[in-house]
Amino acid sequence: MFEKIKSVRQLGIIARDRIGDYMELVPILIKIQGRYFGAQIISYVVLFILALLSLTFLGVAIIVSYWETPYRVVSAWCVVALYTLSAFGVFLVSQNRTRPISPFETLRTELEKDAKLVKDTV
């Protein structure tokens, strides 16, 4: 019985020390997540603007190339089809994309290890 009390007491000391570690880890993980999110937003905005400009000029170039021909209307509809297929392709690619592991996964793993240690000790 005294051994159990002694082991639980030691476990309490370990848990108290680990809580301090967790409290230091959370702000670091929040800062990492914030930087990643900011960089990701900036890259998506730049990618969106450049893709929009390139598709717009591609459509204009195609239509202007066929302007003096009888295929002017057909080329305009082909540009519309190109835009629609591009949008569908981007949608499919974005749906199949995997997300990176969250920085809070580290905190969850550490908590699970400590919970397992508590179960093994008690």
Task: Describe the protein.
The structure is a single chain. The protein has 122 residues and is mainly α. Helix content is 87%, strand content 0%. The longest helix is centred in the first third of the chain and has 64 residues, at 2-65. The mean pLDDT is 81.
* Average pLDDT figure: 81
Count of DSSP E strands?
0
* Strand and helix order: HHH
Structural shape? rod-shaped
List the uncertain runs.
Answer: none
Lay out the secondary structure.
Blueprint: H1 2-65, H2 72-95, H3 104-121
Describe this protein with a few key phrases:
single chain; 122 residues; mainly alpha
Outline of this structure?
By secondary structure, the chain is mainly alpha-helical. It has three helices and no strands. The chain is rod-shaped, with a radius of gyration of 28 Å.
